[in-house]
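User: My collaborator sent over this chain with a note saying "see what the structure looks like." That's all I know about it. Can you take a look?
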Amino acid sequence: MRVIRHLARLPRKLERSVVTLGNFDGAHLGHQAIIRRAAERADVLGGRAVALTFEPHPIAVLAPDRAPPMIQSLHDRLASLRDLGIATTILQRFTLRFAGLDPEVFVREFLLRQVDVAHVVVGYNVNFGRQRAGSAETLVSFGRRFGFGVDVVGPVTAPDGEHVSSTRLRECLARGDVRGARLLLGRPHALRGRVVVGDQRGRTLGYPTANLHVRPGIVLPPDGVYAVVAEVDGRRHRAVLNIGVRPTFDGRRRVLEAYLLDFTGDLYRRWLVVHLVEQLRGEQRFADVEALRAAIAADVTAARSLLADDPALG
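Assistant: Without extra context I'll predict from the sequence alone. Here is the result:
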């Protein structure tokens, strides 16, 4: 996938494009429906699927005190767009000036001038332009005037019958409902980071862990122990993830530690992805190291059983 930073930096006009626009944070089932529709339209029209997305999140610019934590890092968001069939992503820096564009000016002068738009695919609740005045209906009317088609997708419902949204996904993750998050995503939610050197306390307990450094600003589930599938170099392993401050040792710094079952090897400085399958328990303070060791053994047994036939290991 080609990534272009800012519309104004396009070296030349993008030819015959099917454009979709949005933040696409999380790549949930709603986003998947929109992006796949754009890719399908591009195939039919003999063009390219183009995503216009924004960095930072618009709310972080318009109302910083209400800015939500991100579900994905920028790297993972771009990877999701690629995997769903996007050929070119335009990563537009979101500024107050950009936010202040009149919706028609945005479409006519800022988008159509840079891109040969054959078709546009958006979600039903899309907003753009000054004071979020642009909507799906606005785009349909602009399409009639400027000669491009518009598909409006959604709302998309999860298996529980509720609408899928990034807000609902963040709420699930924030309360540790990783099963609920999986329903909205169609897959387990994943955290990605580089393995860094920790205090190696896990080795003394008989459970050597990989300390995971996740980019700041990413939404994390509550402190506790989770059954996860850990992926390293394309291979997947059953694992247990601990998130928290390790109160038994009077810890103060929040850390993410993964213990990979039946794995031997050095993970330092390698990238690790953990797919959250189930919360096993909340974080606890134990009376002594032996009680902690017994709890970890129980966690490992529970994770091994829970993950025995999990499709995330596929």
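A starting point for your reply to your collaborator: The chain has two domains: 2-153, 189-313.
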